Amino acid sequence: MRQLFRKKRLEIIVEGALVETVRALLDREGATGYTISSASSGRGDAGRWQRDDITPALGRATILVVANEDVARRLAEATDDLLTDHAAMILLSDVEVFRDADY
Amino acid sequence: MFAIRLKGGVAVNQQGVGTGLVLALVVGALLSFLLPFLAVALIRVLSPGTDVATRAAVAAHYGSISVVTFLTAAEFLRLSGVPFERFMVAVVALMETPAIIAVLWIARRGGVGSNLSTDGGLYREILLNGSVVLLLGAFVIGWIVGPIGEGDVKAFFDAPFKGVLTLFLLDMGLLAAGRIRQAGGIPPGLIVFGLVMPLLSAGIGGALGVAIGLSTGGAVLLAVLSASASYIAVPAAMRLALPQANPGVYVTLSLAVTFPFNVVIGIPLYLWVAETLL
To answer: Which ipTM did the prediction report?
Structure first.
């Protein structure tokens, strides 16, 4: 059995208009990597939304980061501070990875 | 969109930067900056229950412009045999952003906004968003290359223009229809605003167009630009700057009420009024 290493998975779901702002924050705060995917559709406080709406700014995107716990926490807290006035989902969970050095 | 901007640039290349162009640019930018103040006042009267943030965000959309509405109007004038100043396309890009700046000021006075309002990203979004860069870029390219360069790319940009515009309008129609379902949740006063505001703006824009010496076609285009409401660039800026405002209201009003109104009734009406009065 190969060894697994414990990491934190940080998921940030934000409006399309905020993606670049959050990306800049992650770069500033030292994230070594992340993956951004455009979400398809959903519903929240502002009602239903979908990706093919008139402007990408009104869609949603998921930003996925896997990092050591201290880094992931720092990124999560900085993101939460940045988005004080905006709707966002910031989720932290435990994951296990094969390649310890990658994160 | 690229095609018509390219033509505008080519026109400036041939005719040079005249007083007419400079005046149209100044008046266009002023209209974009000042129309939100009229919009805010009108919403106060027609729908007093609207919250400050949504009122400001709606106002930003009506100060800014819709490029598709402009293109439709330009094509309508061409088909009606009404000439207009080709440089009017330069005014389009300049009318996109002053409204946002005005509304940020209105919102700050009203005590609403986001901690990101002062973020550099907001101003990058306002001044350098994809559509502004593409459209200004097309204009500058047309200006530099002139008619000879235009001839080289004419087959690609010019010939398919009508077909692409038709498909684009159909797609916009589908998006607008999808949004109409949400219009039920909008207060009737705001729906009335979405129909009255373009008429007032068109009147002001058209009158100023005549005052600065534009042709009938040019004045109609300035009226259309004043009457049209943004639904691409401004929503992005408003989500950054005014998260408290309800996008279900401002995008729906702009896209499902004012856009079809201008395309179906407004454009022919503005031309009819201009031809009757001038």
So the answer is: 0.78
